[in-house]
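Below is how a single chain appears once it has passed through the pipeline. First comes the sequence as given, then the structure the pipeline wrote out for it. We keep one example in the README because the format questions we get most often are answered faster by looking than by reading.
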Amino acid sequence: MADEDRIVGGNIRQFRERLSMSQQELADFLGVTTPLISYYEGGGRAVPVLTIEKLASLFGVDAYDLFEENASHHTANTAFAFRADDLLNTDLEQIAQFRKIVKNYISMKNLAQANEAKKGENSGS
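Resulting structure:
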């Protein structure tokens, strides 16, 4: 078992538990089996990149946060105002998609602000 697989797996478990999701619920969301989730969380299997991206969207984190060795460095707000066991798989997909849209919007807004600031600096010279 590679250290990276162990770290990623531990982070997946931590984020899943923060959302009060079962392994079965996460497996249903990803379209995989529960034993595969168990392998991922235990570090027994490497998590494919596309799965990392889906998990990051669901958890509301950047993909690289799943590779962070020290969980205290996670800056994401993963608290839901509701319990995951009350949600359907389609609800989770919509939440993940919405989080992705919000993250993209914030990134574009920050980029636009940086460009405006740069223009202001260049016009002042």
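Residues 75-82 have pLDDT under 50 and may be disordered.

See the next section for the split statistics.
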